Amino acid sequence: MKINKKGIDLIKHFEGFREKAYLCPAKVWTIGYGTTRYCNGDKIKEGDRVSKEEAEALLKNDLSWAEGTVNKKVKVKINQNMFNALTSFVYNLGSSIFKESNCTLLRKLNKEDYTGASNEFKRWNKAGGKVLNGLVARRKSEGNLFINL
Fold it and tell me: Any idea which residues carry the catalytic annotation?
């Protein structure tokens, strides 16, 4: 599957566009729509800048690994909204957390416990050890999209 416009709009809404590199709450240099690395693998660094067009290209590149992670690790049938929510989740957290065997959201999903999986989104609301209102809102939106609300 591939993320659609609804999923991309969700990511863009919560990431927001930033022309100039900034330190995200997890203390990682970030730019554009939440990008932490350029297409060649180089990390974003202080002082970097991007245009909206460059940010779109970086987002598209990042979405390919996020989509790949979801496609590879989800073993049950999901619909487009579920895929969009999961791709947004992976995009924000990174693929390693989702791929870990102790990711309860993925374990529940792969046991076809869709309600249980949707309830797991809200647990991922911290960055740097602190609950962030933006992550609370994002996880609520992802969880609701996942269960098609």
Answer: 15, 24
